[in-house]
């Protein structure tokens, strides 16, 4: 127990730091291509040199931070090409995950799907009525929960991990759409209703088509 305590503490600190930096990258506080200097980050977020370096390595593995040739770090770029590539990966991975989840579905999973859509509908309404950073963060978490539950029953931890990685990479694009008022919430609700009904109706082809439309809209790649 004694030998494991310090490691557990370090992992907790790194997890907290990673959550804070991940949030600020998503909200654009830390800008695309911005250099990330250890000492400046420590002054802003806390932690030791070691914990901050480990945090940046975690975010680098997630694709949110890149190591530079000078052994430093910077925020990953956010170009149109990056967006297209993230869209491609999300479509391939999440459609495969949903198809497998529907093959393996049971009443318990369907209940979690219904509950998650219900929570997201309330988050949509709340972020429209009270637009601020806190409600945007809650809304984004509800979006993440939907993506996660649709993958949940697929039976592949690695596939779930990949879906989470690319969803996190897409967060700043989605939050930018929210800040700029480019989300049609009525069209979004119609897509969610159609996706939910197709899942519950065990209509895999329609569900996958609805999911593709939703992911594209989530990244601003269609008119919804």
From TrEMBL:
This is GntR family transcriptional regulator. It holds the Pfam family GntR. Keywords: DNA-binding, Transcription, Transcription regulation. Residues 11-78 form the HTH gntR-type domain. GO terms for molecular function: DNA binding; DNA-binding transcription factor activity. It comes from the Bacteria. InterPro entries: GntR_C, TF_FadR/GntR_C, Tscrpt_reg_HTH_GntR, WH-like_DNA-bd_sf, WH_DNA-bd_sf.
């Amino acid at each position: 127990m004694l030998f494991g305590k310090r490691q557990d503490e370090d992992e907790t600190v790194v997890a907290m730091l990673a959550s804070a930096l991940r949030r600020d990258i998503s909200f654009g506080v830390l800008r695309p291509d911005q250099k990330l200097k250890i000492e400046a980050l420590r002054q802003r977020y806390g932690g030791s040199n070691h914990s901050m370096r480990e945090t940046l390595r975690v975010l680098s593995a997630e694709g949110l931070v890149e190591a530079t040739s000078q052994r430093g770090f910077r925020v990953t770029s956010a170009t149109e090409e990056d967006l297209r590539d993230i869209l491609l990966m999300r479509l391939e991975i999440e459609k495969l995950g949903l198809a497998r989840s529907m093959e393996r579905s049971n009443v318990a999973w369907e209940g979690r799907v219904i509950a998650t859509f219900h929570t997201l509908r309330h988050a949509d309404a709340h972020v429209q009525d009270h637009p601020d950073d806190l409600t945007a963060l809650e809304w984004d978490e509800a979006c993440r929960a939907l993506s996660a539950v649709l993958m949940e029953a697929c039976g592949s931890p690695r596939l779930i991990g990949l879906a989470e990685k690319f969803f996190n990479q897409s967060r700043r694009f989605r939050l930018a759409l929210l800040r700029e008022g480019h989300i049609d919430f009525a069209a979004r609700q119609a897509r969610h209703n159609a996706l939910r009904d197709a899942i519950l109706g065990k209509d895999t082809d329609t569900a996958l088509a609805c999911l593709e439309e939703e992911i594209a809209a989530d990244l601003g790649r269609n008119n919804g």
